[in-house]
Fold:
Amino acid sequence: MEILADFSLDELYAKFNQYPRFRVKQIFDAIIQAKDYNKTNLPKDLIATLQQDYILKPIEIVKVLLSADGTKKYLLKLFDGNIIEGVFLHQNYGNTICMSTQVGCRMGCKFCASTIGGRVRDLSAGEMVGSIAAMNADNGVKTKRNFSNIVLMGSGEPFDNYDNVVKFLHLLTDKSGFNVSERNISLSTCGLVDKIYQFARLNFNITLCISLHATTDETRKTIMPIANKYSIADIIKAVKFYQQQNSRRVVFEYCLIKGVNNTPADIARLKTLTSGLTCHINVICLNENGGSLKATTRAEAEKFVTDLNKNGISATLRRSQGSDIEGACGMLRAKTLKKADNQN
Ligand code: SAH
Structure:
């Protein structure tokens, strides 16, 4: 069965040219507004016909956790019963949605809960649109866009689901859809170098974020298996190419792990690695998820950022919103799956 949300409005006009255009627009609005089709003005027989061949609503909200800081974490159910996560962050400069691109992940980063259980499957572009639509509708007037920023930083590796993610970015920025500005979108990758080059050539004006987390290949290999395939030097070369193509500032994510990556030598190497790049380092305190890796103290993290700044490197410590509700990547889903397992 095809998922209706996989199509843009123009594609739906072409696909359903037997229907009047205003009907097709009603179908499209139902997708974008995450509406129950039975509560639209669509004729019942048309809904019944569509239901025979298409998945009309790809996402259902299963659970919402509200953090003390207003952050909302969502468990979202796909049509086949798989569960993904999303986060809605209320911010002064415009709300942000953090979304998933895969069910699970196969990158195997040691610190990340999304990777527990591996990759189950990719999300289609329409499922990604559906997740945005569901969270948007739950956070304000349904007919409006209630967010300004989208970050592809939830579960999954966006470049391991490259074609669907690119299609999703086209749908997300489409004028007849959510019409999100490319400059308000960030995509985070663990560094699939060949895909960074491929993506750079598409000239999307979006912010590329690289999960770096180490300054030597040796250390990176101990926490991120992808480092066995691509060296840090390869990544930096690809990032430079990306920047030549679209002149956006690149963001490096650097998750501090006790005894692994927070020495003065790391700071010196970060200075060398980032020289000649317009970039920012987003330092993150590790969210411990039961594994052997431990977080540094907040004070150590703050000192790391200050030392980077003293070395002329633009860096900030990421505010950790929603940490009281399993805010980090994949943690809520992992916990939910574990619970379900115990009940079986
Ligand atoms: N696969 C992509 C996007 C998902 S992870 C990537 O690797 O970038 C999004 C960000 O959250 C990454 O920087 C990731 O390294 C970070 N992250 C994952 N688990 C974390 C944890 N336990 N604590 C802190 N940050 C974490």
Residues 107, 109, 111-112, 153, 157, 188-190, 211, 253, 255, 284, 286-287, 289, 328-329 surround S-adenosyl-L-homocysteine (CB under 6 Å).
